[in-house]
Specification:
homotetramer; alpha/beta; Alpha-Beta Plaits; 2 domains; eight-stranded parallel β-barrel; 34% helix; elongated
């Protein structure tokens, strides 16, 4: 961190800054320009709040952070790609992984049928919600543990590992008993107890970006999980909220490419939630893979117009099969294979 | 809801819509214009997902909701202002309520001093965080139960009721034991288990608007709480996230005025978080009251530049006292009194 | 500006930066911390593009601007409030100025009637569009010069000075012949030829903030006008575009308060466009004045439901008269008078 | 359009709506549901302002537009893809077109060198700014007509057609004399006089999306140009402004895919401005092509760190050559060829 003093800052002002730094075990390194003094902050651990504190000091013009506030998630400190292993499947290891299935688990027949369909089309993981966050209290919220059991049954039959959302810290143990990968939803990206509980679960965690979370906040939330000793974090870009209402959200493909540069964690795209329209799912899935994503999570429903949630963004089995072959072609064009 | 069919919709398309409506116990009322058919949906309970479902049907151009998706929070169904009683204090009852105190409870001395200062200046409730949500895992996260005890001690001495944040469902019982009003923070506005637990706590709940929550989503989250049988919900506008970075957030004063029209719930403004700069807190507090807010929540710290969090947005005791007298003048100008 | 070098920057990297600075007549002042080198940039005129250039240099971690990029509009360089004189009327001189009138000039009867009504209610300037920017090519675009003549006629009768929009550089001379104050609309905030032409017109200019313009860009656009030798610039906050759709725009009252601190220019609020709903105009007008605005511009129409544009945000004469008395009360509460 | 009346609307209210419709030559078709009356609006030309007007009527709950407000740009009225011909080059005709060159024309040597480089790498059009819009008045604004002459000279030598920006209506004739395609920049997307002048120029026009323009507003601006009798409009997505600051803008790839569905106009992506970072240009260019774009416009500079503007987002000749071969591979994967 660098503290830029105002032109008219007094010695007293400077001393106050130096003294506060010392309280945190930090050293202030003075450097006098022609116009003003700049204080370089030296020391092991700069508290994230320090910037806000110093901005408030008399005589301080600006405190400027130099390094990124996340470390464990940063490529700077961990240059090689993290590969998350789920059984024999590798996420982040060079191949593109496709996770597919219905938005919500609705019935045995629905989930078993869908599991067979997506496996046949080439998906390597099964998705499906047993606990559903819904903005209205008057909406279907999932089958709960019964849904988890049906997912496990589908795994037993198809061999596909399963990923499903966990919404509250006290459910982590339950969901982790059934799921291969825990999903943290966008609304919970800053539910810190949940992040920490997931970090202690022993399961890989897929962390969806919050609707209005900055890139940096997203990485800081990953940091919460990794800091519990769980390095197996998968990022998932699922669209951000902007002024545009022609699509449900705005997929931030910039963030996918930036993530591959700034972090070592695998990145998955979710064009179903990112667009909200089934006919935009294929082009955006292809776009994400072309931009470097390590895979995609796609909603597929055997009968989308009867889906209990998000039917309008689900692909039919036929459309999903077409998409899988297009994904293979685009992956190959950027030098990769679909897992 | 109204379902507008495409010009070229077939009888089969129309029948499919009617049939689906029937499955939900709803009736479709056909009306043939010169160019197209419109189906009015009649029935008691239209599921919130229906719109998405129907948009997906062949031959459907658009499904248009007519009424608002929240009911319990809506002024349409409940025309008179809700007055939330906290001991003898009334929130929403015509007087402007000022809640004040530090961002976080840091020590006995700090909270006791601040409590005395804010009471003397005319505040009618004491705020202070015992559990703090922080975007980075490396930051001070509050004193926990010890903080709650200190708040209770401050209440005992000053008589001020206390409001403090609860972050996770399993903490609701604990926090409700000490606090007079539970606060749900912006990051948790869509933490539905927490909303429901708070709804069952028997305590009034102040619900902060999420950083990127629409007005409608905010009201739907209030609906979650009220639906548990707890009518004592206070809305709190604390700034939204926009492209503007010159201030920490953008206070949405439009939403304050709109809330007074669309709902019967009291609305409090939080200019400390809404601006992120202490020198913008007074003008925005005055603006909110002028626009019709039922009160304000203000961060005050006896020594802002030593605050463990958010010091740069805290007022000094002197500035707070000045603000209180300005608030009284503006409240009077719009025909109200400060409680 | 400060250039922060990477930890592993070479001497060669540093020399390259110093050399580039020299090409611009700037000096680089080195300062070695324990971990990295920081280069302070010293010199009279740092080109605004320099930051982008240096960010691209090898070995550079970050180039950090220290002072604000606008000077003429900055309070730092011009501490006293600018007072814009329009005849005997002063804008920014301590009194709150109310500009009122229809969105568009529609007919002689309409503009004359409205002018009389708003003068009687206490407005001190007449607004009305003769040239209207419209997002669709199929919409009423104003009466053009005929509209300007009607405005001038209304001024002759009522004595109210007039403000009206100019949309294209070649119209500046024409509009300046009739208008007392030129208005630059939100869509044209970065139409630089128009800004410069207006800067040379000899008329005061009211500059509306662009829908997605940052605070800094707004001030830079003011700088364009002032740089032509025209110090009489009035800022106008009229709402920004955010994710929220419950209101037409989001009034950024934070920006009003910030403008009073960072610049010396007067600031006017436009709650008619800022909210898009007539019933939100009064609370937001009051909010803006409470936050420190130097006045408000309000749409008033003798028969809003027959207005050719923006009727739904226009006040009736009765509602406008009520608002004027509320404005007087709130202005007084913050120590000011309505002009 | 459909007008939904409130439950308690009176006959008088309904009559008022019908009467107003009649004034516009429209017919209101009543349809009584069980709960409320709905009025279908029938007639040739519904004025775009009608919705706002009716929303304001007593007894009206909501006026709902049914068709999109743009017609000439809509695929509904013009199902086949528009192919814009520039000499022998076709844009929108199935091949992906790459336009490349420096942000600004700086000198004869710079533009001639760049033109040769990009032609050799496979680009089919040369870009370069002669008139540059800059947010600060203190920045390089281009060489003006001298820049146009240099572009023409580069075309003479390389055979590449040229595209360059025009910023003000009075410059259209001048720029059209030199350029093969006129570019309207993002800041001018709603500069209506400029749109109309460009529509009358006889040249194809590439219309960049405004920073905060909705998809619909973008199409309405295209409508302005087409309405002047010029069908040769090319859309260009160049990033929108969101809360995210980690990249300069947020590329809206959703909008690219949506444009291919809703309009018949070709769509070009501009990843240089859309990301603001040279290392994000290749992944986003690939993403856009994978999502269905008809081409890309890319900044290339022989010496990016000496570029007079936007150097940090320009590719070196080497990086551009690599990108061209990747583009060819991805285009082929989605069944297309690079022109």
């Amino acid at each position: 961190m660098i503290v830029v003093m105002r032109k008219n800052a007094t010695e007293e002002n400077i001393d106050a800054v130096i003294k506060r730094l010392a309280e945190y075990g930090l050293k202030g390194h003075l450097s006098a320009g022609e116009e003003r003094i700049i204080i370089g902050v030296v020391g092991a651990a700069i508290p994230p709040t320090l910037r806000g504190e110093l901005d408030y000091f008399e005589g301080v013009q600006q405190a400027v952070p130099i390094s990124r506030p996340y470390k464990l998630a940063s490529r700077e400190f961990h240059p090689y790609d993290t590969v998350v292993k789920v059984g024999e499947l590798e996420i982040g290891g060079g191949r593109c992984v496709v996770m597919a299935g219905p938005c919500a688990v609705e019935s045995e027949e629905q989930i078993m049928t869908t599991a067979r369909i997506v496996r046949e089309a080439g998906a390597s993981m099964l998705r499906g919600g047993a606990f559903k966050p819904r903005s209205s209290p008057y909406t279907f919220r999932g089958l709960g543990e019964q849904g988890l059991k049906l997912l496990a049954q589908a795994r037993d039959e198809t061999g596909l590992p399963i990923i499903t959302e966990v919404m509250t810290p006290t459910d982590v143990e339950l969901v982790a008993r059934y799921a291969d990968v825990l999903q943290i939803g966008a609304r919970n990206m800053q539910n810190y107890q949940l992040l920490e509980e997931a970090g202690r679960s022993g399961r890989p965690v897929m962390l969806k970006r919050g609707l209005s979370a900055t890139f940096e906040e997203w990485l800081l939330s990953a940091e919460y999980i990794i800091a519990q000793g769980n390095p197996d974090v998968i990022l998932c870009e699922r669209g951000i909220r902007t002024f545009e209402t022609a699509t449900r959200n705005t997929m931030d493909i910039n963030a996918v490419a930036l993530a591959k540069r700034r972090t070592h964690l695998p990145v998955i795209i979710d064009p179903s939630h990112g667009t909200g329209k089934w006919y935009l799912v294929p082009p955006l899935a292809l776009a994400g893979i072309a931009a470097g994503a390590d895979g995609a999570i796609i909603e597929v429903h055997p009968d989308p117009d009867r889906a209990k949630s998000d039917g309008s963004q689900s692909l039919t089995p036929e459309n999903f099969a077409v998409l899988m072959s297009q994904l293979a072609a685009v992956a190959q064009a950027v030098g990769r294979l679909v897992a």
